[in-house]
Design a protein that fits this description.
This protein is α/β, with parallel strands linked by helices. It is built from 9 helices and 6 strands; from the N terminus they run αβαβαβααβββαααα. The protein has a 6-stranded mixed beta sheet, sandwiched between helices. Helix 6 crosses helix 8 and helix 8 crosses helix 9 (about 245-255). The N and C termini lie far apart (about 40 Å). Mean pLDDT is about 85; it is low at about 90-100 and about 265-274. The structure holds 2-acetamido-2-deoxy-beta-D-glucopyranose (2 copies).
């Protein structure tokens, strides 16, 4: 089942910025980007260890309790990706003062339908320098089997089976990049620059992007990830890419200024610059 709620945890967001956007959607969804993203953002080798039962990071605890689930049913895993090297899990280390090479912590409810390995694989495909801005991953079941996700304080909650939906993981990572300070314009979504660039486009990528400026930016992070990582860029699958150019291009420019978050290929976007 497709995720229909993939947003931010509500209370963070000032009212004016949660207004719906009135630009029309370019496509009915971003599923058409899935195949290329999975192909060119390949799996990353990893290993994991289960924490001693009874230990859980406090953010995982909060998110579990907020979902009315029992903390006693959540297992915590530390996940080490081999591409991390000397780079830093920024969000994690800033907040908890851990060492630079610390693994990610993944909290998983024992009734979550998605196997642990699926979640580790999918998150590993998010380019490492973007992944660094994500704190913890929390995978929980939903009583009505409804697939959804949200980002709270840099943590990503995934409900039910995410089922190899890499666009969803990149979308949620996009919220972390935006709101935790990855971009020179920080937060990008509330910056004058973003709003000026947004004003130049005739469309937003899809109906979910219309929810508000935060969700639009997160969906455009998916478009930018495709454009940067899949050979030929977004133009290969999206003939109307010019209608959202200023949005996804702004994300690419900000990522470049911040040192580049794309995959190994780096930017293939030069042809689109104006
Ligand atoms: C959790 O339970 C409370 C009280 O019954 C309810 O108001 C709230 O909506 C529930 N939250 C979720 C995410 O189910
Ligand atoms: C949710 O999925 C589980 C496992 O497939 C199934 O047993 C259960 O009946 C489903 N619940 C609902 C409310 O559809």
């Amino acid at each position: 089942m497709r995720a229909t709620f993939i947003g931010l945890a509500g209370s963070l967001v000032p009212l004016a910025l949660t207004q719906r956007l009135d630009k029309p959607p370019l496509e009915t969804g971003l599923d058409y980007l899935q195949k290329g993203l999975l192909e060119y953002l390949g799996p990353v080798k990893s290993s994991y260890k289960k924490w001693t039962p009874g230990w859980i990071p406090s953010d995982c605890k909060t998110m579990t309790v907020n979902a009315n689930l029992s903390v006693a049913h959540v297992e915590t895993f530390s996940v080490q990706y081999e591409d991390v090297g000397t780079s830093v899990n920024v969000a994690f280390s800033e907040i908890s003062n851990q060492c630079p090479n610390d693994p990610w912590l993944l909290c998983r409810h024992i009734d979550s339908p998605d196997p642990l390995e699926n979640m580790i694989d999918l998150f590993g495909r998010v380019p490492v320098r973007a992944r660094q801005w994500v704190r913890h991953i929390v995978n929980l079941p939903d009583p009505t089997n409804f697939t959804s996700a949200y980002n709270w304080a840099g943590n990503i909650a995934m409900f039910e089976s995410i089922n190899r939906d890499l666009t969803l993981f990149i979308h949620e990572t996009g919220h972390s990049l935006d709101l935790l300070g990855a971009y020179p314009d920080n937060p990008l979504s509330t910056s004058r620059h973003w709003h000026a660039q947004y004003a130049k486009d005739s469309h937003v990528p899809d109906p979910y992007s219309q929810s508000n400026i935060y969700e639009d930016l997160a969906q455009n992070t998916v478009v930018a990830a495709y454009d940067l990582n899949v050979p030929g860029g977004i133009g290969v699958v999206e003939p109307k890419w010019r209608d959202v150019l200023h949005q996804f291009d702004t994300i690419e420019v900000e990522q470049r200024k911040a040192g580049g978050f794309a995959g190994e290929r780096g930017s293939v976007h030069e042809a689109f610059e104006q």
